[in-house]
């Protein structure tokens, strides 16, 4: 009975977590909109890698209700992780062409920091000029700095001051309140980075808000409202900066704290993805993404080779079957006189 109660509680937690997947154009993704299906962070990471046309390890993952288009890829991709929210954010479709909501397997979220690191390595390994901006203690703390760009903090003081003004219920002496304001500040700075990003290269933008449930009950509603508006601002900035943009907003019912060592199979799969990205960075030989141009070039080379082979075969066949006697057409011009009459 006790085990049943524990399992029921875990199931309730999982059911209250979700992920919203958005795309700026309908041709970037395959699948139906609305709310249906389940997702885990490994499948979501693999989905992002496919959308960004990153080199991938061939690993089995749980199928998603959506899939990235094979030929059309995103230039900008964003992740926003909100812990302890208890309710979804970014539910408004806004001007995005596609939106899909799926239940998130919260037991898999402990892999997020590692998988974000894998994504950062893949983006930078594909092109060192690509932009990777990551801010948030819970998700970005383990990402190697050599795979990320420096987050500009020029306006950090003014942004933080405005947030304290917008959240008068929060106290600057409370560690939990300080954490929320600091991570909201980082989220705002990531938004500024998106607005100033170089559109000629790909960009990956990640931000997280740590456990909102750590706030006092009377402060949570105000904080959630500011977080929700900031997430909306994030997605708007991403869409305006990149014509082809993708976004995942992960809303967790609790703080990421589950021991993932117990999930050995999932960890092994995540490691395979990481090794694939590491090999790309080390060798500097990232596999080219499959595009229309690649397929067209392959087809041209293939059929040109086939035609040349057929022509060569026919020419050899004709030569082999040709009559080389003196009365044959081959020698006709040598057997004519000056008056263009053949000799008898």
Automatic annotation (TrEMBL):
Give the matching InterPro entries: Renin_rcpt (IPR012493)
TM stretches of this protein: 300-320
Note the superkingdom of the native organism: Eukaryota
| The UniProt record lists the keyword Signal | yes
Assigned keywords, A-Z: Membrane, Signal, Transmembrane, Transmembrane helix
The molecular function terms in GO held by this entry are: signaling receptor activity
A single GO CC term, please? external side of plasma membrane
Q: What is this protein called?
A: Uncharacterized protein
């Amino acid at each position: 009975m006790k085990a049943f109660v524990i399992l029921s509680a875990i199931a309730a937690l999982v059911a209250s977590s979700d992920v919203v997947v958005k795309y700026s154009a309908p041709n970037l993704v395959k699948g139906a909109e609305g709310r249906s299906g389940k997702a885990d962070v490994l499948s979501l990471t693999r989905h992002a890698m496919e959308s960004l046309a990153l080199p991938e390890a061939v690993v089995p993952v749980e199928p998603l209700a959506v899939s990235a288009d094979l030929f059309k890829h995103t230039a900008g991709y964003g992740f926003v992780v909100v812990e302890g929210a208890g309710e979804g954010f970014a539910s408004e479709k806004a001007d995005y062409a596609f939106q899909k909501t799926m239940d998130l397997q919260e037991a898999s979220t402990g892999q997020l920091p590692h998988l974000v690191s894998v994504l950062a390595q893949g983006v930078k390994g594909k092109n060192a000029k690509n932009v990777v901006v990551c801010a948030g203690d819970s998700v970005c703390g383990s990402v190697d700095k050599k795979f990320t760009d420096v987050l500009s903090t020029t306006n950090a003081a003014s942004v933080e001051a405005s947030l304290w003004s917008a959240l008068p219920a929060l106290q600057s002496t409370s560690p939990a309140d300080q954490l929320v304001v600091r991570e909201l500040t980082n989220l705002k700075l990531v938004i500024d980075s998106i607005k100033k990003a170089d559109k000629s290269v790909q960009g990956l933008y990640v931000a997280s808000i740590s456990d909102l449930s750590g706030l006092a009950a009377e402060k949570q509603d105000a904080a959630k409202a500011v977080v929700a508006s900031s997430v909306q601002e994030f997605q708007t900035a991403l869409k305006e900066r990149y014509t082809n943009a993708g976004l995942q907003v992960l809303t967790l019912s609790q703080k990421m704290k589950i021991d993932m060592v117990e999930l050995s199979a999932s960890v092994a799969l995540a490691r395979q993805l990481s090794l694939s990205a590491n090999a790309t960075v080390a060798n500097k030989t990232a596999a080219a993404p499959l595009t229309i141009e690649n397929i067209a070039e392959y087809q041209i080379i293939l059929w040109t080779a086939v035609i040349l082979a057929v022509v060569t075969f026919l020419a050899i066949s004709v030569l082999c079957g040709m009559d080389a006697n003196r009365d044959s057409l081959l020698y006709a011009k040598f057997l004519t006189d000056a008056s263009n009459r053949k000799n008898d």
